[in-house]
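Schema walk-through. Below, the input block comes first and the output block second. Nothing else is stored per chain. Lengths vary across the set, and this one has 321 residues.
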Amino acid sequence: MALIVGATLLFAQPAAGATVVNGDFETGSLAGWTKVGLSASGGSGGWFTYSGLNAPVSTKWEDGKEVPRVIPPPPQGNFAAIADQSSFFGTRILYQDVALEPSMTHTLSLTTYYNSAAPIAVPTPDTLSSKAFGNQQYRIDVMKPSAPIDSVNPADILSTVFRTYNGDLSFSAPLTRTVDLTPFGGQVVRLRVAEVDTRDYLNAGVDAISIQSTSIPPSSFSFGRFKLNRKRGTATLKVDVPWAGKVMAVDLRKIKRIATVTARTAAAGTATLRLRSTYLFRERLESRGRLPFKLEVTFTPTGGAATTQIFSGQLKLRPRH
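--- output ---
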């Protein structure tokens, strides 16, 4: 038998979550982001916001005229960010540091696309340096802010959202990618978008960068009053919970002395578990006047992970005269 009772507790105030500043680039600028150029041999270009189909700086000759190169339109909204070069041979990095609130889930989402005028190529060992001839790659990582901005050391990279590999196609249409950042809650992480071109032009695009944060329901709970009904040989156990969910008590013995009981709560508050002996042990309770037990009590918050505690006690039955 389950019962929900009052004595409601206060709700916890929701946390603010994580915020990517100007992640959709709809400001028409790179506000909130930091650009780094690591050109090794005179290459020029960088990261830009753009709209339409014209590359920000790269051009081509067409019908005897120099015209802007055509690039894919922004996949979302009016603007996106893209790496572009007026002359190739360089490393172009865009990054932003983001604080991930503790006690929350965090899911990073973004859209990537690219168009390379040369085959995609990643040197061995991997590097973001344009000194490595033949380096033509694009990657997005979640990094430790303390790491060198061009590091590809696995110890510095918390998660790789996207990267190109040798043999990949030279063109990729916009694709939405997600990665779980929950394990890094309570930390500041660095979102790094990096492009290297040493063979020819490489337009690497990114858009719609956001982090969806959701509070993790608290699962800690405490036992309240344990009250015996000696006349009936039953008892009630109060369980204080911090969130909506289900409380369940299960006898730890293989042959159950106490019947399994559950209680559901619609909010933070107090659940009442009504404890009674199983049919098999009712006679023992009546003959001895008491029935010791040990229960595994589990609280499972709605949308969260379960927590378990042990509760020991005994039922008592007043002798009949």
